[in-house]
Amino acid sequence: MKKDQTSPAAFPKAEIGREMKGSDAVVECLIREGVDVIFAYPGGASQELHQSLARTDKIRTILPRHEQGGSFAAEGYARATGKVGVCMATSGPGATNLVSAIADAYMDSIPLVAITGQVYSKYIGKMAFQETDFYGMTLPIVKHSYLVMDVHELPRVFKEAFHLARTGRPGPVIIDLPKDVQQAKFQPVFPATVEFRNQYATASQMATDEQLKQVLALIGEAKKPVLYAGGGIISSGAHEALKKFAEKTNVPVATTLMGLGGFPESHPLSMQWFGMHGAAYGNWAVDQCDLLLCVGARFDDRITGDTGKFAAHAKIVHIDIDASEHNKNKRVLLPVVSDVKPALVRLNELATANKFKAPDTAAWHAQIATWKKDQPFQYDKSKHIVPQEAVAALYELTKGDAIMTTGVGQHQMWAAQFYRFNEPRRYISSLGLGAMGFGYPAALGAKVACPDKQVIDIDGDGSFMMNIQELATAHIEKIAAKAMILNNQHLGMVVQWEDRFYGSVRGNTILGDESNVGSPDNLGGLYPDFVKIAEGFGVKGRRVHQKNELKAAIQEMLDHDGPFVLDVIVPYTEHVLPMIPAGKTVKDMILK
Amino acid sequence: MRHTISVIVENKFGVLARVSGMFSGRGFNIDSLNVAPMHDPSTSRITVVLKGDDAALDMVIKQLRKLVNVVDVLDFKEGQAVARELVLVKVKANAQTRFELLQIKDIFRAKIVHLSLDAIIIEATGDDEKVTALLGLLEPFGILELARTGRLALKR
Q: In the A/B pair of chains, how many CB contacts fall below 8 A?
């Protein structure tokens, strides 16, 4: 029955399988869903599944060194490809270690299937060894979840889980499998399709022509229109349709961080990205526009600041696949429930068919050009390597052709500001949840998915430490993901808030010895020694603190045929600017 | 404002937790929530009385529709549905007060479902106003215990 390839298309018809164990059926289901890699850490309650995985050569099983690392890696894989990422852990502590990634996938709408072992069903609810109610625990952070009590349900559950994870607004689905269900023998019936009684679970959401004509009419009347493009552009694969639409209508585009690369940043219509630390001109344009076209985004507080004053003079159109996002954070004039790709494709068709004439927005474009010139992303030079400069150098040396992952904090913002993204799925970052420790394991997942691409984790010394054990995974599994640590010996973003809002009082934000804080001027105080740690893991590393060595060091990292840790020593005194303080408005933007 | 909605759900493990968790997790206020299987035993009807403005109602309905095990969500606008609640109330009663309680019971077309020397249990059905009025009249006698179903509603 086994087919050569793992892909849903290879299994178009329902099939009755031979008699097999539940765990073997799980593997068969994964193959049928096109899974070629799974990040899985074994334990008593998932051991049976690992035994079954050991018997297939169609799925690569990667052993992370912490379940959280494995689950972030699965997300990195999903974010780099758009395919469903799959991770697995045992019951109890194995499962609880997946929680951050599940929450992260929920926040950022990433297709993820998390499989967990569960104690024998007769022990459920008895506080058995390594038992947790994982189904109950994850209810608020999943798109859907299953606790499978009858082995015969396995094929249907897996079919449904993958369907739900990847369709509509993508998201995480968990499948909790008691050990006796994994062990039970049965004759599986593998369905080829799914059925739900909830009509929205299978409906393809599409805007009506009437709605889209209204959108075009609004653009026709606008003098200062702006397109606000979010992660939906990327998950829907709508980047080309968006480009065409922006060009046809001559509307400038500002993306969110989730939407980074959804519109080419080198395009003349690009205002890069906006929000708390986004481009000043993007923020000004959104603030002053008279028409805001939000496509595949959700008016997150890091975008809007004070929602009451956000785009206060604009008519707002909101095209999104999830109806519950409409009017949730910001009331809009025209909510359109639609998958954004077909909506944009149809808008382009209608514009052509009706000979849509872009409005005269010359004055608006001139204004934006002035803003761009006056206030680009910028930083002051220093005698030391500053973090922004390291990112800019990386951009130059990779010619913009690499996949970035990040941890969370200042470096995450600088990576977005000083690397230019012209293609989708190139900036992989924990944005809604903001989970530190995301960067390196996500880079492993992205590298496994895209072995021919440079994959570089731009990280902070705080974030990198949170999943540093994954260097072992990189070495043992031969995954050549690179890490460039912008090492300032502090929790930089929290320090920045301390400096701006808390009188520079340090509340546990120094990562080294407080009486001997390391810096470019005090190399002796640097802690820990990341190069030595890397060496212990069998991974090559290099520390660089002198400006004139920066590019050579980055080049060495890029040229190295294997994982690499580049420890870039930078001062902690840099702030990410511009900055709109939380809950404030564009008028409160800090530029200096 | 109070809104009544019916949530038709699949009778599956954990569905009630999912629905009630959505309300608490997203900060919606509910007055009452009632669940029981429907005529088709593979589904249950959850009747929810929600406190909030129209925007909150709109959000609740959209969020409920996203739950995979939710089959349908019905929003009952004023006058579109009949709504009833059942209440069981145990009231202190002795030889002196019993007669008066029986009179009240009759006026409200309620029933006595239990009678003892020192208490009676009255079963009453009606809309909110009726139940509230009944309880107001019983209060001076001493309400010992009370169980209400919360509002049930069916489209006319």
A: 41
Residues A402, A426: Cα–Cα separation, whole Å? 7
Residues ≥6 apart with Cβ < 8 Å to A279: A254, A271, A272, A273, A375, A376, A377, A578
Spacing of C-alpha A458 from chain mean position: 14
Q: What is the pLDDT of residues A16-29, one digit of tens each?
A: 999 999 999 999 99
The candidate with the shortest Cα–Cα distance to A493, out of A434, A438, A432, A550, is A434
A493 among known catalytic residues: yes
With CB atoms and an 8 Å threshold, state whether B55 touches A201: no
For every residue of B23-45, DSSP letters joined together read HHHTT-EEEEEEEEE-SSTTEEE
Residue A116 counted as domain residue: yes
C-alpha pair distances (Å), B140 with each of B93, B103, B106: 11, 15, 18
Q: Are A550 and A451 part of one and the same domain?
A: yes
Tokens encoding A222: 């606008």
Domain count of the fold of chain A: 3
List the one residue out of A5, A2, A3, A8 whose CA is nearest residue A20: A2
Same structural domain for residues B99 and B74? no
Q: What is the pTM of this model?
A: 0.96
**CA A419 to CA A390: how far, in whole Å?**
10
Q: What residues of chain B, 19 to 38, have a C-beta less than 8 Å from chain A? A: 21, 25
**B16 and B29 share one domain:** yes
C-alpha angle A481-A487-A488 in degrees, rounded to nearest 5: 160
Question: Dihedral sign, CA of A405, A407, A409, A410?
Answer: negative
CB under 8 A, 24+ apart: contacts of B116-122: B118/B92, B118/B93, B118/B94, B119/B90, B119/B91, B119/B92, B119/B93, B119/B144, B120/B90, B120/B91, B120/B93, B121/B88, B121/B89, B121/B90, B121/B91, B122/B88, B122/B89, B122/B91
Interface test with A, best of B68, B69, B71, B72 (most A CBs within 10 A): B68
Using CA atoms of A563, A568, A572, A574 in order, give the dihedral in degrees to the nearest 10: -100
Supply the pLDDT for residue A203: 86
The reply to whether ipTM tops 0.90 is yes
Is A130 known to be catalytic? yes
| Burial profile B59-76: b = 16 or more Cβ within 10 angstroms, e = fewer | bbbbbbbbbbbbbebbeb
Looking at residue A2, its pLDDT comes to: 47
Which range marks the domain in which residue B50 is found?
Answer: 2-78
pLDDT at A109: 98
CA dist A557 and A568 (Å) reads 12
State the pLDDT at residue A1. 44
Domain boundary among B78, B97, B130: B78
Could you tell me the CATH number of the domain that includes residue A457? 3.40.50.970
- Which of B62, B78, B94 is the C-terminal boundary of a domain? B78
**DSSP strand pairing (A37-40 vs A60-62):** parallel
Give, to the nearest 10 degrees, the angle between helix A439-449 and helix A67-81: 50
What does the H/E/C string look like for A428-442? ECCCCCCCCCCHHHH
Residue A571: CB partners within 8 Å, gap ≥ 6?
A: A382, A384, A386, A488, A519, A520
Q: Please report residues of B whose CB lies closer than 8 A to that of A322.
A: 66
The closest alpha carbon to B6, from B68, B77, B103, B112, belongs to: B77
Structure token digits, residue A90:
């045992």
Last residue of a domain, one of A340, A374, A408: A374
> What is residue B143's three-state secondary structure?
strand
Q: What is the CATH number of the domain that holds B15?
A: 3.30.70.260
